[in-house]
Amino acid sequence: MRSIRDVARLAGVSFTTVSHVLNGTRKVSESARERVMRAVHEINYVPSALARSLRVSKTRNLGVLVPDISNPFCSEITLGIEDGARQADYSVVLGNTGQEGDQQTHQIKNMLSQRVDGLLLVAGIFDHSRLVQALAKIRIPVLLIDHEAIEMSADWLQMDQFHTALLATQHLLTLGHRRIACLSGPAFVAISQERVRGWRQGLADAGIEPESDWSREGDFSIESGYDYGMQYLPQRLVSAVLACNDMMAMGVLRAAAKLRLSVPADFSVMGIDGIEMGGYAYPALTTVGDSLKVVGKQAADMLIERIEHPNLESRRVRRSSQLILRESTGPASPLPREFPDEQ
User: Which of 55, 93, 152, 233 has its CA 20 to 30 A from that of 21?
Assistant: First the structure.
């Protein structure tokens, strides 16, 4: 592997001059700078990021913790984070936390061992007591994405969960639906609570008191949406289903197809988040959200600004959502058609 001394030898300068040229730490004559850069390109020299980080006490690495990178919500946000990091000449160190407290703590310690300059934590189902303890010990900037504001000093970028669910419910109401189910995430998660509250408020504004069997609890996975659909769609209790994330909504769509029900003729199905995959479901999923790649880039920009300007006031930014109208919602049918026999 080529070293800085190889560059200096070829350029006919001292290795300290090469260091000044590459790091911009001292003014160097134009002729010397040109010789150094020609030598760098000629031997394809790549500066050591580790050596640089030891000199300046920064790695220009952002740690990103997600519950499951295979979830499109997490992967799309991560792509946006990488885009923002790359534009600012930062790199990304990724870790999957899962839902186990030990794994979450381990990943945070792993990020610290890699000397990341800042940490982004993407929404998930976390063991709060452990998470608070682990993050409270961190001496680096932290930004929370779509996570409730826990008791610590951190910036956060969060969807307005209540108004997002309210907007989704209002859309279904404008289509004539009066019996609207809500498939929530885990009841102990603040995001779930706020989205359910938005659904209830939308119904209340329309003078509708939801029946007890309209609300069910899922776990944000596509499997829980499918299980819900297979169990409750045949009962024809409602004319529309608001799933509290797009993955569960796509599970409901799969169950409807399995049951040979037509969406939206028999049921309307709606999600929340705005993942790109929803546009390729059949039928394409109507949802409320925004570009998650844009969200990820905004989060990276905020964290990098915090790293480079540590004395900034703490920021709590609520992002707005838009109705993404596709094919899975339509006017409420006056009467449900006869339920088909399974073959």
Answer: 93
- The reply to whether CATH 3.40.50.2300 applies to domain 161-289 is yes
CB count, 10 Å around CB of 324?
21
Task: Quote the distance between the C-alpha of residue 262 and its chain's center.
Answer: 31
Q: Name the residue among 196, 209, 188 with its Cα closest to residue 169.
A: 196
Angle ∠(278,282,285) on CA atoms, nearest 5: 35
User: Among candidates 302, 321, 295, which has minimal Cα distance to 78?
Assistant: 295
Query: Could you tell me the residue ranges of all domains in the chain?
Result: 4-47, 61-159+292-319, 161-289
- Residue 215's SS3 state is strand
Q: What is the pLDDT of residues 169-219, one digit of tens each?
A: 999 999 999 999 999 999 988 899 999 999 999 999 999 999 999 999 999
Closest Cα partner for 64 from 318, 304, 314?
304
Number of H helices, E strands in the chain: 12, 12
Q: Specify the amino acid at residue 244.
A: C
- The one-letter amino acid at 50: L
Same CATH topology for 61-159+292-319 and 161-289: the answer is yes
CATH 3.40.50.2300 fits 61-159+292-319, yes or no: yes
Look at residues 304, 276, 303 and name the one whose alpha carbon lies nearest to residue 290: 276
pLDDT tens digit string along 255-310?
A: 999 999 999 999 999 999 999 999 999 999 999 999 999 999 999 999 999 999 88
Nearest to 146 by CA among 248, 323, 275: 275
Give me the phi and psi of 34, to 5 degrees please: -65, -40
The overall pTM is greater than 0.90: no
- Nearest Cα neighbor of 64 from 343, 303, 241, 314 is 303
* 26 phi/psi in degrees, rounded to 5: -155, 150
